Amino acid sequence: MLLINIAGIILIALIVWWFWLYKPIEAELGENDLVITVENGTYSPSRIKVPAGEPVELKFIRKDESPCSETLLIPELQISDTLPLNKLKSIQIPALKSGEYAFHCQMQMYRGQLTVN
Amino acid sequence: MSTMKTESGDVSCHEGGTTTTPHDHHAHKAHHHSSENNPGPQELIIEGAGCASCVGKIESALKAVPGVENAEMNFAQRTVSVTGNVDAADLVKAVEKSGYNAKIAAAESEDDALAEKEQADWAYYKRLMREMTIALSLGVPLMIYSVVVGEMTVSTTGERIAWLAVGLLTLGVMVFSGKHFFVGAWQSFKNHSANMDTLIALGTGTAWVYSMVVVFVPYAVPEMARHVYFEATAMIIGLIDLGLALELKARGRTSEAIKRLIGLQAKTARVIRDEKELDVAIEQVLMDDVVRVRPGEKIPVDGEVIEGHTAIDESMLTGEPMPVEKTVGDTVAAGTINKTGSILFKATRVGKDTALAQIINMVKRAQNSKPPIGRLADVISAYFVPVVMIIAVTSALVWLNFGPDPAVAFAIVSATTVLIIACPCALGLATPMSVMVGVGKAAEAGVLIRNGEALQTASKISAMILDKTGTITLGAPKVTDILVAGEQHEDTILKLAATLESGSEHPLALAIVESAQEKGIETGKVSNFNAIAGHGVQAEVDGKTLLFGNEKLMRERNIELGDFVEKAQGLAAEAKTPMYFAVDNQLSAIIAVADPIKEDSIAAIKRLQHNGIRVVMLTGDNRATAKAVAEKAGIKEFFAEVLPEEKSKKVQELQMEGEVVGMTGDGINDAPALAIANVGFAIGTGTDVAIESADITLMRGSLHGLADAIAVSKATLRNIKQNLFGAFIYNVAGVPFAAGVLYPFFGLLLSPVIAGAAMAFSSLTVVTNANRLRFFKAQEH
Questions:
Q1: How far apart are CA B256 and CA B449, in angstroms?
Q2: Looking at the structure, do residues B583 and B483 belong to the same domain, yes or no?
Q3: Which of A75, A68, A54 is CA-nearest to residue A117?
Q4: Same domain, B465 and B522
Q5: Is residue B35 part of a domain?
Q6: In terms of C-beta density within 10 A (0-12 exposed, 13-18 middle, 19 or more buried), how is residue A72 classed?
Q7: Which of B315, B435, B483, B504 could bridge to B590 as Cys pair (CB 3.0-4.6 Å)?
Q8: Cα separation of B240 and B22, whole Å?
Q9: What is the Cα–Cα distance from B88 to B40, expressed in whole angstroms?
């Protein structure tokens, strides 16, 4: 029983670490054309590094049929746009100050983040 | 090499019945003029370019074509953008010669995009229904078995073999009907995020794995807990697929308003180029093209009438039911319907620039924006899934430690149920779905709401400030009286006044100039024109110094007014605006101008007051006129002689009194007040709407739009609250029950299947409730 309890507590700790504390590597929006794929409930890459102070273009391609994934929201920038299925869509991002900006789908099930610095 | 596809082929010529008019020639010139000065890039889609080195080859092939200024290829998108004055077909040929295929990328119309979306949705719907059918055809019989026959326990070898078969069938269901949940869960796990798929995959997966353990090694679990939950796995997957499918259907209805707006766009236009009439796709109409529209046809793009006259039904755009007469010089808007006559017009705004396209764009954006009320739900949603996973683990541990026998089974059931019931998707959908329908509903009534925040604030408005001219009144004043001092002739005065005012853009000035024009009086030359804000104007005409304005101005200049003050007051009491006219510092006349109150202003103001809103009128006009107009309009509170820069101060004053202030105005001088008000309402004059300037734009002149906007926003907010409540009950309040808090008191534990059904139908409930807003009707008027 003790073992099970310890295992349970470790499991909780793992959940906290994996979903909250761990910061995955950010993809850089550089010279190469970075395309964010919307598929299977995720944006990939989901963490994108963007230079501060200059407008950039994010390219999305939605391969997920779920209607929720159709809407892309960046609440802090008041950006909301629809992503057509299987078609490249560019979203213009204005010049931003350093910081973190979340983007997500309508239900907030698909989540990503722009890291500006 | 495959066959070349060029879309220039769909430009069909209609030479029969074409008559050459002087305008045709003009059109021809206009078209060329436009393409020389503003060629605009042409986009080609390249096929067969597999390597990065192709880029240079294609670009140089295109640059070699005479007329091409620049060609730039985007390798990632396989498109090339060409600038210069050149025929698209020549570009395609050039690419073909260099060994690749090219086709012209036609701008995708909203219509096509919508059709494509609907097709994709339909395919997805069918897939979900198919998956649901498979899952439920296993789940339902198993459920019936468990209810009718009883416990699904594993004790004999025969039972083990039978349940193994069922377990494998369930695995089949998980692969066929539930694969998307498992793939999604794995993908998001890799991404360090958790979502709905995570919860469903964990819940159903746990139930299945536990059942298989019971089948394979029954001795590993206590005898009382040797129970299989295959029916739960199959049922949950089936029910959630069903929920998703029904939600998809219901979602389609929420975008009805935008569909209707998109449907207003014409597909083709008949343009006159090179003295020929051609039917071209709407995307190919260029600025300055001359377009012919016949009775019954839709206006394809925005423009200015250059020949003919007609009546145009603008109701779909403005909500104004009466057709509007249009003649040479008037503007026409895309999406409206030409009723009676045939007209030629010059395209002034095409493609994404037409008022209709901008409206569609704005409604779409507003539909996806969130009012502040949804913020808490957003914060909850963001942390919800990992929290639920922790609750599920904790709940299982509590059952294992303190639960009655069979503790393992209770632990499994409670953890599975917690995972399944607690999807935050309904919470996430609660706000956007209502906003989507509400904003669309408002657009149908000719009210453009800029974003979710404006929608929410509009529902709380307690005081409404109305600008007088152009808002309560028509904004088209007419000269009603000219009272002359001394011996001069009325027409002489009018000529001088009109000359003076010809330099001003004030609506009252316009009334005087128009009045002179009607009498055939020509205006002279004006010099040293000086507008004195809030007072009047001054200028020199024929060596005389003319002064035209209100009593304040005259007093400041020490002009003797005599009994004309009384005469002016008499005119003002009749809701006319009297203005003093002085020549060389001598009072010469009073010219009175009246601006009639709009037909439905009185009823609309009554409606606002009836709904408990304090209505206040604001005007730069003199007190007596303002009072007369306010009385006629049924407004008790008004501020007269307000200078343009003071308008925003009045808004602030009301805000200091604790009012949530709505400000309604039509002019540029209202902009600061519109900006400072809690909600700024701009009155768009018919089709030429200043869409971006205000929080809410009323596309028709009627003040009923205000009451409609407030009514829609109130209904939407109510709907959002219902949705949030519903989603909260299902997803948040459901968690403790799923974890088993009721068990110690009532011996109740929620079944995972019930949880699955609740979860599946929570989103559906929210979307369906949002859809009820579609039937909302603003109060009849």
A1: 16
A2: yes
A3: A54
A4: no
A5: no
A6: buried
A7: B483
A8: 66
A9: 12
C-beta atoms of B76 and A20 within 8 A = no
Catalytic (active site) residue B112: no
What's the pLDDT tens digit per position in B564-601? 888 888 888 888 888 888 888 888 888 888 888 888 89
Q: Is the peptide bond before B507 cis (omega within 30 degrees of 0)?
A: no
Q: Read off the CATH number of the domain in which B85 is found.
A: 3.30.70.100
B9 lies in some domain = no
Q: What is the CATH number of the domain that holds B562?
A: 3.40.1110.10
Vertex B53, ends B50 and B54: CA angle to 5°?
55
Both B602 and B632 in one domain: the answer is yes
Q: How many CB pairs under 8 A join A and B?
A: 125
pLDDT score for B38? 40
pLDDT, one tens digit per residue, over B651-707 is: 999 999 999 999 998 766 778 888 889 999 988 754 454 556 678 988 877 899 899
Instruction: Report yes or no: B368 at the A interface, CB cutoff 8 Å.
Output: yes
Clarify whether residues B567 and B621 are in a common domain: no
Size of chain B in residues: 781
Does B165 contact A at CB distance below 8 Å? Answer: no
List chain B residues with CB under 8 Å of A80. 365, 368-369
**In this structure, are B606 and B703 located in the same domain?**
yes
Parallel, antiparallel or unpaired: strands B614-618 and B637-639:
parallel
Interface membership of B247 toward A (CB under 8 Å): yes
**pLDDT above 90 covers what percent of chain B?**
28
Structural domains for chain A: 25-116 (2.60.40.420)
Print the domain residue range for B67.
42-107
Residues B521 and B542 in one domain: yes
Are B573 and B621 contained in the same domain? Answer: no
Pair B488, B499 in one domain: yes
Instruction: Tell me if B386 and A67 make a contact (CB, 8 A cut-off).
Output: no
* C-alpha atoms less than 13 angstroms from C-alpha of B71 in its C-beta half-sphere: 27
- Out of B144-148, B529-533, B539-543, the most confident range is B144-148
Which tens digits make up the pLDDT trace of B37-70? 344 567 777 766 666 677 788 888 888 888 888 8
Confidence of residue B473 (pLDDT cuts 50, 70, 90): confident
Sequence-ordered list of residues with C-beta below 8 angstroms from that of B579, at least 6 positions apart, any chain:
B508, B536, B548, B549, B550, B590, B591, B592, B593
Q: What is the pTM of this model?
A: 0.78
Question: What is the CA B593 to chain-centroid distance, rounded?
Answer: 39
- Rounded to the nearest integer, the mean pLDDT of chain B is 83
B483 strand-pairing partners: B590
